[in-house]
What we know:
- It is a single chain.
- By secondary structure, the protein is mainly α.
- The protein is 72% helix and 0% strand.
- It has helices spanning 3-23, 31-44, 50-80, 87-100.
- Helix 1 (3-23) packs antiparallel against helix 2 and helix 1 (3-23) packs parallel to helix 3.
- The protein is elongated.
- The chain starts with a helix and ends in an 11-residue tail after the last helix.
Amino acid sequence: MGSQQALAAAKVYRDLLRAVKKHIGNEEYKKHFSEYITQEFRKKCQLSDPSLVTQKIKLANDYTFLLNSVHHHKDLLFTYNIAVDRSDEMKRILGKSAASVGLQLPEVYQP
């Protein structure tokens, strides 16, 4: 693997792990996602064919783009209230607004 490809692979690897951590989560029961990514990148670092390396880097980059796009799409659906329940989002927004002025929302009684 050339130095350009190594730098590109490192950047895509960081971006992919960041996207997985942000959108899937970093809890213990979700660690297998990041472990799989790490395992695959370590296996593929032994490849010598530059076209195959470029193809694998592009695949990882595309998957990162997919994760980020799906998350963004979900946010847009919540924002425009398209066939989703917005009560949780409104609680979150109200909580952020209250916290920004130093207040806290009261706990609502749930029977």
